Amino acid sequence: MKKTDTLFIGLMLFSMFFGAGNLIFPPFLGASSGTSFWPAITGFIATGVGLPILVLLAVSLVKGGAQTIGARVHPLFSTLFMVVIYLSIGPFLAIPRNANVAYEMGFKPYLGDSMNQSLFLFIFTTIFFIIVYAISLNPKKMETFMGRWITPILLLSMVILCVVGFVKLDAPFKAPTDAYAAGAFSKGFIEGYNTMDALAALAFGIVILTSIQQRGISDRKQLTRYTVKAGLIAGVLLSLVYISLGIMGARMAADGSFENGTDILTVASTLLLGTGGKALLGIIFTLACFTTVVGLTTACGQYFSKLFPKLNYKSVILIVTIVGFILSNMGLNQILKVSVPFLVMAYPLTIVLIVLTFFSRHFKNPKKVYRSAMTFTGVFALMDGLNAFGLQLGPVQTLTDVLPLSAYGMEWVIPALIGTALGILLSQIGQTAPAEELEIKTLL
């Protein structure tokens, strides 16, 4: 495979990852963390960049990808977990969130307050999803549309905004808010969940592997090598963008208080470039959200058409775009209310599942280790998610509050380690790995 092919696949992966959350959260983190910016952004990059690359690596190492990894817990768990992941990063959460943000940032600023916003949102999302559907119809051309055309325009727009920001914004960093005053790294670590990229990587893995295989690469080691190279290209670009946006947010904090990252970028772009800045920001948001929605739609189409053979690829992406279109018209606030609690539940399970993948060759009975670790993790992740929904857990909440790292939203870590240790202990008790597990481990 040519080096340029790897580069463009990496650019395509960057464009799929880089959506609404990737733009919104770094500047707000910068404004909130202030003088604690560097540990905060390091934590953010750990889960916003490092974890997605690890997920891609794990998916490429195992024949069958994420589905096989989940099957090490139980085949039913694997199917249910992956269906929930695809629906969440697809039509039920991430797709409508990105479409709605594209409207909010790309077009709404040019409409008067007196205009019928619901009607214009309906018109915008209709056109948006028709184009998404048209491009998603042919996954083979995704690299051309996204890697060779759209991503360079997106990156150029980002470079213009960030360079002007570095030149014109020179205010010193302010003191961090209470949330970042202590444990800035862990706070940034949790904020990295909001990008949803680790979950998206479970879905995007199949898209990237398919793109590589279409170039005649079938050897597992070569697939892994090219996947890692594409992931590193995307990861470096994402890290640079996050740091740049974060610094811009930290310097903008001197100009007042902001409710979120969109407010910061709107004020900054107008301050730096006037009316042209608002237009540039609109282009950035629209392209970023569009490429992510195309990537997610394609990933959902490839997964569900294999899971349900009676549904062909075109039928699946049609369903995905219709559901995404309907939910997009609910409004951004309603979408975000649902997404945060889900992320709090899903991320710990994903992290533990992927970490175990890299050590499974050392387990005598991987199923016991996986099941024990995921059970312990899942209980506390579920409680944390219910708490994020606003449910009062009473004495149970008191129990979780005394766990180490609970103050940083990571109370699941110790239970995960206990579950893993218990699984390893049980696997040592007079059992050897089943033949099918040995076959899986040889691929690692």
Short description:
This protein is mainly α and 444 residues long.
Structural description of this entry:
The chain is 77% helix and 0% strand. It is mostly helical and 444 residues long. Helix 5 crosses helix 11 (197-213). The protein is globular, with a radius of gyration of 22 Å.
Question: Which features does this protein show?
Answer:
77% helix; disordered C terminus; mainly alpha; 20 helices
Write the layout of secondary structure elements.
Blueprint: H1 3-17, H2 20-33, H3 37-61, H4 65-71, H5 75-92, H6 94-106, H7 117-136, H8 142-168, H9 178-181, H10 184-191, H11 197-213, H12 220-252, H13 261-273, H14 275-307, H15 313-328, H16 332-359, H17 366-388, H18 395-401, H19 413-427, H20 435-441
Helix pairs in contact: 1-8, 1-11, 1-12, 1-14, 2-3, 2-12, 2-13, 3-10, 3-11, 3-12, 3-16, 4-5, 5-11, 5-14, 6-14, 6-15, 6-16, 7-14, 7-15, 8-12, 8-13, 8-14, 11-12, 11-14, 13-14, 14-15, 16-17, 17-19
Helix/strand/pairing class, anyone?
mainly alpha
Query: In whole angstroms, how far apart are the ends?
Result: 23 Å
Strand content: under 5%
Q: How many beta strands in the DSSP annotation?
A: 0
Poorly predicted runs: 435-444
Share of helix among residues? Answer: over 70%
Overall outline: globular
SS element count, helices? 20
- Biggest β-sheet: count, sense, barrel? none
What is Rg? 22 Å
Average per-residue pLDDT, rounded, comes to 85
Order of helices and strands: HHHHHHHHHHHHHHHHHHHH
